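Budget justification aside, the reviewers requested a transparent look at the raw inputs and outputs of the sequence design task funded under Objective 1. We therefore reproduce one unedited record. The lines immediately below are the structure tokens for a 213-residue chain.
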């Protein structure tokens, strides 16, 4: 195989998506891989698997193997095997469900334990999902940021429903794994989109209240 052929090959990364049931893990994976959103909740039993090819700066093509782990599997016999050897982990919670945030400690502890003997230590990203429901938020953003800082996690807010920052959250974790620096516009996109969503919802609430008055 020539050097040029070898350089043109895709890199492949295993990305595991975990968190409580109903926090939007499957919706997140489906939105990313298939650009679709299912309106009805369907519990994932065991494991779903998705593939998606993305591009990173430097003409680097990366195939992400996305492992969507059912939320009911915390403590299950197969969970450590699913997580073992992952290059990246998306630790997902629902910003409108405080319990899903509290349970992150258990999920994160499981990730660390599962990879104690692995040659690969995964990059872990904390994903606050459902920012389209900002007006129903029960987990304050500063709690999210504190958890990231205390545990050295990548931080991201997304909406699987609208697609807001979904592609970026996978792109960021892939870039972090491979040591690729994203440009400033890409890095700022998440916060800009998040603030825009907050601004829109806040002002829509005011308009709606005015119309009802």
């Amino acid at each position: 195989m020539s050097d040029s052929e070898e350089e043109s090959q895709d890199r492949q990364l295993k990305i595991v998506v975990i968190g409580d049931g109903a926090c939007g893990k499957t919706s997140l994976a489906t939105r990313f891989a298939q650009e679709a959103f299912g309106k009805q909740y369907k519990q994932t039993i065991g494991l779903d698997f998705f593939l998606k090819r993305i591009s990173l700066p430097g003409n680097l093509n990366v195939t992400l193997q996305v492992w969507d782990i059912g939320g009911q599997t915390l403590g299950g016999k197969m969970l450590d095997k699913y997580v073992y050897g992952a290059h990246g982990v998306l630790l997902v919670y629902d910003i409108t469900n405080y319990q899903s945030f509290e349970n992150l400690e258990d999920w994160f502890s499981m990730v660390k334990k599962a990879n104690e003997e692995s040659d690969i230590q995964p990059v872990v990203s904390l994903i606050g999902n459902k920012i389209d429901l900002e007006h129903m938020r029960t987990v304050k953003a500063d709690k999210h940021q504190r958890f990231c800082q205390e545990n050295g996690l990548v931080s991201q807010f997304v909406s699987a429903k609208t697609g807001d920052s979904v592609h970026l959250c996978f792109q960021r974790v892939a870039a972090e794994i491979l040591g690729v620096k994203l440009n400033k516009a890409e890095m700022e996109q998440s916060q800009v989109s998040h603030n825009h969503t907050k601004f829109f919802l806040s002002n829509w609430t005011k308009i709606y209240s005015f119309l009802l008055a």
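Residues 89 and 124 are 5 Å apart (CA to CA). The first strand starts at residue 11 and ends at 18. Computational costs for records of this kind are itemized in the attached budget.
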